[in-house]
Amino acid sequence: MTRRYFGTDGIRGTVGEAPITADFMLKLGWATGRVLTRESGQARVLIGKDTRISGYMFESALEAGLSAAGVDVILLGPMPTPGIAYLTRTFRADAGIVISASHNAFADNGIKFFSAEGVKLPDAVEARIEAMLDEPLTTVAPHELGKARRVDDAAGRYIEFCKSTIPDRVDLHGLRMVVDCAHGATYHIAPSVFRELGADVSLIGANPDGLNINHEVGSTQPAALRAAVIREGADLGVAFDGDGDRVLLVDAEGREVDGDDILYMIARDRHARGELGGGVVGTLMSNFGLAAALETMDIPFERAKVGDRYVMERLAANGWQLGGESSGHIVCGHVQTTGDGIVSALQVLSVMAREGRALSELLAGLEKAPQALINVRLTPGTDARTLMEDAALRDAVAALETELDDQGRVLLRPSGTEPLIRVMVEGRPHLNVQHLARRLADDVESMLS
User: Fold this and answer.
1) How many CB atoms lie within 10 A of CB 360?
2) How confident is the model over 80-133, as pLDDT tens digits?
3) Annotated catalytic residue: which of 102, 286, 350, 415?
4) How far apart are CA 4 and CA 290, in angstroms?
5) 164 has catalytic annotation
6) Residue pLDDT, tens place only, 25-37
7) If you count DSSP H runs as helices and E runs as strands, how many of each does the chain have, helices first?
8) pTM exceeds 0.90 for this model
9) 217: which residues sit within 8 A by CB, 6+ positions away?
């Protein structure tokens, strides 16, 4: 069945443009409620959001639609996406709804769902919700309307959960860190987690106003964090994206530590202690150096398609626990059901504290191949997949692959969350991968024009 609304990470777009409108969200809430009540008779749904100004509007619309379908609603307010997954499980709710566009700017917003188990909804359930959207909206009898209540201690519950994912004996006293909350959903969570564990925390990107989420801060724009770490002489920096499911680190010298680096550090530590539980799942974007480093430790490595949904699928299929993306979306399946920026950072901080080593020292043994990534924005009305099938573009990719031979690789793919074509070139140190990626990106841009 062809999907009209759901992508690889829910429904996302620009606020005020279909389907990211108040009337659609009302109908989506109702359709979701109808599907859930048909399956379980009665249903409860959690709703959480990031800090975008449009979150107020969509929260109210979803609440109204769910109530009209006879579903009780539990409102969490601003809450990181993984926190909503966790609370959906602990409240024994039938589903959790996240109002967020993750790392996108404030003008975008979106919806994604978690099942009662705290994982993404199965495709079949999403398909039933889409089908229900075609039905006329009806309201249950007045005595059957859903009730709504707000949870006042949601933040505290999630803070305690995050701290519980590392051993009680881990103490972060003496660790100086800068935390960048991207003016997003972690602004009132992450500082408390790290401070309560003893760290000396300085903050940036922790003053959301509804319009500044991800603006020149956060894991996708780490320049501010790098500067703050160096300026304050901190031991490291931690940056989250707007909804808190991604994390990027910065060492004491201001060097970025991405998702591949984080996977390596966690995998090495858990493997050494006999707790890894299988291999590691990366993606097509994962650096060749990560695969090589894991191979030297006899740790199996598998590449999934880009997207946390596909990482989770391969982890489940293999019975493994650890996986993630270069972007910093890390799944620590031994403690959490989905990607969690705070929890992932804590796993690294726990290793630092236990071994008494700096962040940069934990990366010994990982030699990453040079990699260049350029995003090309699509012109309005351009279909990314049609462009990808263009013969001239495929010829350009093939020519570059021939030029690289066995010294590198090329990956061209449409973004699943934004109107972008991502151009990635990876190669041996003697190659100018930035120049080669720029050349291919120019080819894409010329076809768009």
Assistant:
1) 14
2) 999 999 999 999 999 999 999 999 999 999 999 999 999 999 889 999 999 999
3) 102
4) 36
5) no
6) 999 999 999 999 9
7) 14, 18
8) yes
9) 180, 181, 182, 183, 204, 205, 224, 225, 239
